[in-house]
Amino acid sequence: MAEEQSPTEASSKTVTLRIAKSNPEHDSASQFAEFKVPYERWTTVLDAILDVKKHMDHSVAVRYSCRQASCGSCGMKINGRPGLACFTKISELNSDVVTVEPMNNYPIVRDLVVDLEGMFSTHKKMKPFIINEESEVTANTKEFLQTPEQVEEYIQFSNCIKCGLCNSACPTMATDSSFLGPQALTQAYRYVADNRDKGKNERLKIIDESHGIWRCHFAGSCSQVCPKGVDPAMGIQMLRGYLLGFKK
After folding, report:
1. Three-class secondary structure of residue 236 per DSSP
2. Could you tell me if residue 90 is inside a domain?
């Protein structure tokens, strides 16, 4: 039987893929495994990782799903910068060596997989839904009509896919594990800025605490790595406007 070949084996270009391997239950630190991987102009980092997993090391642990930058599952550090593996092309990295590691500021499950339970828990704490007594569906329910200007207030911040990259890049989260984080704070703003929502005061109380919005030092790292252009740093600054009375 002929040996199974990689789909990209015909490529004349190769890259050294360094994958951080660790299992916190048994290992005290990560070690890097190196693999020579062929790639084409369109090959993504996730393609390369799955190529390794299929043909060279079946044990590589990686989380992924949609493979089109919609689900946020494949967040990791790529050459030291948080990014989505399915959204990052090897040819655009301009490097002969690509190093992939688990995201910072999250507990490591194994290899490239981190535990996102903390982020989802904090996200839920922000009450990420419309709070309005009239939101219950009845026989007389009508649409909540909005003007384009009203939609513009929050629509950018509704594009969050909960990939966790912003929290991984946040320097405050690296020193304060109880900090709410840019992901949660931005989602708080998304609903506070929505004129259909009546839960503004409730959310402002949640974020106005010792590990809340005032711990953000506006480094802007979160916005630099967001794959959807949400701009968490701007959302946090605008949310502060409500607390300071500049916005109503």
Report:
1. helix
2. yes
